[in-house]
Amino acid sequence: MLFGRNRKNPIKITDKGVVKWTYSTCGYCSTGCAIEVGTDAEGKVVASRGVGSADVNRGKLCVKGIFEHELFESSGRGDNPLLRESRSEAYREVDWDTALDHMADEIKRIQSQYGRDAFAVVSTGQLLTEEFYTLGKLVRGVIGTNNYDGNTTLCMASAVSGYKRSFGSDGPPGSYEDFEHTDCLIAWGSNLPEQHPIIYWRLQEALEKRKFPVIVVDPRVTMLAQKADMHLAITPGTDVVLLNALMHVILEEGLEDREYIEANTVGFEQLEKEVQKYDPVTASKICGIDEDTIRNVARLYAKADAAMSIWTMGINQSTHGSDGVVGINNLNLITGNIGKPGGTSLSITGQCNAMGTREWSSCSGLPGYRLLENKEDREEVAKFWNVDPEFFPKKRGLTETDIFPAIELGEIKGLWLVATNPMTSMPNTTRIRKTLEKLEFLVVQDSYADVETVQYAHLYLPAATWAEKEGVFTNTERRVNIVRQVTTPYGNTKSDLQIFNEVAKRWEQSKKMKFPEKPAEVFEEMRQLSKGRLVDISGMDHDLIEEKRGIQWPYTEEQRKKGEEPPRGGKRLYTEPGTFRFADGMAKLIPLPFIDNNEVPDEQFPFWLNSGRLVEHFHTRTKTGKIGNNNKFSPIPFMEMNPNAAAELGIQHQEYVRCVSRRGDAIVMAMLTQRVPENMVFIPFHFHDCVNRLTLGLLDPHSRQPAYKQSAVRVEPIEDQEAAARMSMERRAF
Ligand code: SF4
Predict the structure, then answer these.
(1) Which of 88, 44, 32, 65 is nearest to 618 (CA)?
(2) Which of 270, 301, 321, 613 has the most CB atoms less than 10 A away?
(3) DSSP character at residue 260
(4) pLDDT of residue 734
(5) Contact (Cβ atoms closer than 8 angstroms) between residue 482 and residue 23
(6) For 254-263, what is the mean pLDDT?
(7) By CB neighbour count within 10 A (0-12 exposed, 13-18 middle, 19+ buried), where does 732 fall?
(8) What is the number of structural domains in the chain?
């Protein structure tokens, strides 16, 4: 019993006067946590809390979700469109009609002067799926440029490309539930506790019930590596070598699943021939993992009843990103670990709706994973939208990372950026700045007027954010969940859906098409178009999605009519033999020769530069940089450096240093830690004018995703620490 002086104070939770909780889905990362947002008696948004009955997060939220309600009124929100004729002028506020008329006139001028593809569109993974679908209809069916992409090329393109090459379609085949069934897990370049804290908590929960080995492959001693049973500190950019070596051991020792290989795959002989070259001794010299460890991990993985791999940017952001994903798929296919509980290749996506854009935005094709290259797909969508199928291009245009060089070359003259911030997120930002300055017309559509890219624009369109509007997101495990409107759009902002619909009206072509105004009506179009596709959502509607706290696709109309409870059938893909998305139903085993094309450390630039996330921030801090607690916990850019390397250069803990690459320099505070090896430094990627002043960003040949994590830098001490601190602060966006 606790009496008197021994009595502890119970934790006091401030009563915020919430009178109503509204169901929604977190708008930051792809975990897809269900969240309730509280409003007080005056309708003011005052609190956020996790939803206990939602399977994804079971009541939990991370530090971003807990404070998410603060973003509606956070600083920097734009409330009126801003226009200027040239960059030397100051912006003036204009009404929406003036802004959108001007925008349509400029797009039409550029297209008639230079050709349809001279105007490009780059969107995001942040919008609602109904908005992505509508933007795709506008770009593909009305404006008609083929240079249309999303910023997901910077984070998930390699996963998409790898899934398509191995399985014939995008679409992660597994679920979080696989943690509860697996007997061995390898995390490739994935630091769950910082990147996806609630997925990490699901993994921990599974481990508490039943122990299984967790192996982390990462050049840095990440938080997940610290918790793992084995940490393989791989040489950056050599995952393909390690994967080939693991398969070499598995095949040499006869540990493969022959029955599964024969029933489900083609290409085994070619794969076997290639991996024969990667014996553990040879491979260890390239990837830095000793031969015994390679053998032990191979045996552990192949002998497990069910084994799974997860990965994030450590695989994707590489010149071998797509090959890395194919390598993981190869490993799982030869060990029979696709489509069964606990056996899967699960890419952990980045943004809250990166999956939604992959499925429905038409960036890389047409909605519902349809292809521009496929005549039937073009005709089907053209008929549904009432456009001429010949209006569609017959193959995909440029990705985001190829759009910027095309601007440099003068091939693209106008650009529409939607909720993306390349001045912070693209590699080599000095070059991006010069590129943006070449544009005849740049329009930026964003919820925040202070996003860095607005400085280079001619027109700024203020958009409503997250739960100021309504629609769905799809999370990493293909779960469609709903964002309900919690509050009215800020100031004079419009939802992205409204903006797209208003833009469409300015083209004659749109008059014979439908651009529904209500998100539920847009969802109905997607539902119709999804029938019979891998991404079949025909059994869903907004109300059912909320009732079930999210539903994993596929969930078909037939399943619903038969009374089957969602998410039956949606937990895993490719559960039956011969159901891969190639014409013959077989998955492809693809040989992966390794070519070392990274920028590697040398005498002049002796450190690997690695970058990644912090738990407090999301992407370029457009949102979290304004939220008190997130910003207080993690206010400044810093650089992790090994104490031995620092001692050699005479650098003390928490001193400012200059980090220099062949592209530029950044002033950062050195944090001395054993988390990085002596030949590596690590800088978080969230901060403006920081790590991406340094990165090279060579592109993956298949996915066109940049290699953010393989560049070379040197570190220089700075004598005048006060001046360095000032410069570091000045370079911060907020
Ligand atoms: Fe939001 Fe991701 Fe945190 Fe969940 S883990 S609360 S989805 S940021």
Answers:
(1) 65
(2) 321
(3) H
(4) 44
(5) yes
(6) 97
(7) middle
(8) 3
Do 417 and 278 lie in a common domain? no
Residues 206, 170 share a domain: yes
Residues at CB less than 6 angstroms from ligand 1? 26, 28-29, 31-33, 57, 61-62, 64-65, 196-198
Tokens 């550029």 belong to residue? 110
DSSP-based three-state secondary structure for 526: helix
| CA-nearest residue, atom 4 of ligand 1 | 33
Spacing, Cα 565 to ligand 1 middle (Å): 26
Q: Do 149 and 266 have their domain in common?
A: no
Q: Residue 366, CB half-sphere, CA atoms under 13 Å: how many? A: 28
Quote the ligand 1 centre to 321 CA distance (angstroms): 25
Nearest ligand 1 atom to the CA of 31 is: 7
Residues 143 and 199 in one domain: no
How far, in Å, is the centroid of ligand 1 from the Cα of 69?
13
Same domain (yes/no): 341, 371: no
Torsion angle of the four alpha carbons 188, 190, 191, 194, in this order, in degrees rounded to the nearest 10: -170
Reference 176, options 150, 205, 148; nearest CA is 205
Q: What is the largest CA-CA distance in the chain?
A: 83
Alpha carbon of 424 to ligand 1 centroid (Å): 22
Q: What is the pLDDT of residues 39-96, one digit of tens each?
A: 999 999 999 999 999 999 999 999 899 999 999 988 899 999 999 999 999 999 999 9
Q: Which of 36, 198, 616 to mutate to test the pocket of ligand 1 (most atoms within 8 A of CB)?
A: 198
Distance 398 CA to ligand 1 centre (A): 31
Q: Are residues 457 and 397 in the same domain?
A: yes
* The token pair that represents 505 in the structure block: 């009206």
Q: Give the three-state DSSP class for 335.
A: coil
Give the span between the Cα atoms of 143 and 443, in whole angstroms: 15
pTM of the model: 0.93
Mark whether 184 and 284 lie in a shared domain. Answer: yes
Q: Which of 35, 75, 126 is nearest to 491 (CA)?
A: 75
Mean pLDDT of 613-623: 80
Q: Give the domain extent around 704.
A: 607-732
Torsion of CA 602, 607, 612, 617, to 10 degrees: -130
Contacting residues for 198 by C-beta, under 8 A, at least 6 apart: 31, 33, 56, 57, 60, 61, 62
DSSP 353-421: THHHHHHHS-SSSBTTTB-TT-HHHHHHHHHHHT--GGGS-SS----HHHHHHHHHTTS--EEEEES--
Same domain assignment for residues 446 and 382: yes
Rounded to whole angstroms, the Cα distance separating 150 from 417 reads 9
- Token couple for 683: 């800088």
